[in-house]
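Need tokens for this chain, all 77 residues.
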Amino acid sequence: MIIDSTVQIAIANNAFSHPVNVAMDDHDVPYYGIDSRCLINAPFHKFGGTSLVYRFATLESVKNGERLTVQMGLITF
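Here are the structure tokens for all 77 residues:
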């Protein structure tokens, strides 16, 4: 898996010398073009002229004020 190799590289570079807290977040990016199977209908957002979005999830850790994005992926249903 991509996340496994990313974490292994981070450990090899001493990014995680002890257990850390991670945060998972999702982000919606509005889309104004033609429908695609990767789009999500998010009518609760008030994007001007569209309710279609690409939704991304990120898994991140912060150490000494520096953010490390461990994983990012497109969410589809």
